[in-house]
Amino acid sequence: MTADRRTLLGGITGLAALAPFLSLERAMAAAAPPNLRDIDAAAAEAHMQLMAVPGLNMHGDEEVAMLLYPGFTALDLVGPHYFFASMMGARVHLVTSTSDLSPVPSDLGLAIAPTTTMADCPRDLTLLFVPGGTTGTLQVAQDPAVLAFLADRAQRATCVTSVCTGSLVLGAAGLLRGRKATSHWVARDMLGHFGATPVDARVVTDGKLITGAGVSAGLDFALAVVERLRGRPYAEALMLQAEYHPEPPFKGGSFDTTDPAIAEPLRGMFSGFVARASQLKAP
């Protein structure tokens, strides 16, 4: 057994996965070429050094449910999924809002294959997550079966979370009342409609409710969640594994930092979405 390219690219998870096989590695070492024996030994040593970092909680048993619905924004889900699925021992369930396990199309056409239905999703979750979108989000926020599913699983979940306009779905399920929360800048002020206090921030934590702002904020959000579940050292390790060190090529990315000649028309383009979202029923 050798530390091949896929194992090395697995980073923290890959190194941790080597641990049960260390004895087998030693048994086969004599048959491996010298250069591969050196690589395997160095990988095993690096793993042991990582395990010795104070506060590093590498192993866990989290149950993570991430909702898929037609018209979700892919990056809202895929960014957090990378970090959640990289937590060794965590089980990530991609839960479809539909009746079967057909791939669920995102708002821009990228389809994701679910792993379970709402009926078969574990009842007791560590983390419940809802991504955002536009028209698809408004539709799912009016789906009684989805809202009942979220309300039920949220009762027992350790963390109830969303990114972007996914917070509107949480609000429609009655999960924002009396809480501070955030969303995409287009929808943030509408959170008050659901009894929440809107906060202009990339990530907002209020008790077990953790919400992220628009799309790219899902990376910041996911790291905050990993820190909460596994501690800062583990979150830092995954942050480095992902080489998350953003350097935008130019200023912008928020309404206040974008040229008004661009920001104002863009806000106008979303006026229809805002009007329809304001019609969502607050439980």
Query: What fraction, in percent, of the residue positions are helical?
Result: 40-55%
Distance between the termini: 56 Å
The H-and-E topology, N to C, reads as HHHHEHEEEEEHHEHEEEEHHHH
Strand content: 5-15%
Number of strands: 11
Number of helices: 12
Give the strand line-up of the largest sheet: 5-2-1-6-7-11-10
Biggest pleated-sheet summary: 7 strands, mixed
Rg from Cα: 21 Å
Q: pLDDT average, as an integer?
A: 89
Low-confidence parts, pLDDT < 50 over ≥5 residues? 1-27
Which structural category fits the helices and strands? alpha/beta
Overall 3D geometry? globular
What can you see in these coordinates?
- This protein is α/β, with parallel strands linked by helices and 283 residues long.
- The chain has helices at 5-9, 11-18, 22-28, 34-51, 74-85, 135-140, 144-156, 166-172, 217-230, 232-241, 260-269, 271-277, and strands spanning 63-68, 91-96, 104-105, 111-112, 116-117, 127-130, 159-163, 180-181, 197-198, 203-206, 209-212.
- A 7-stranded mixed sheet has the order 5-2-1-6-7-11-10, sandwiched between helices. The chain has a two-stranded antiparallel sheet with strand order 3-4.
- The longest helix is centred in the first third of the chain and has 18 residues, at 34-51.
- It starts with a helix and ends in a 6-residue tail after the last helix.
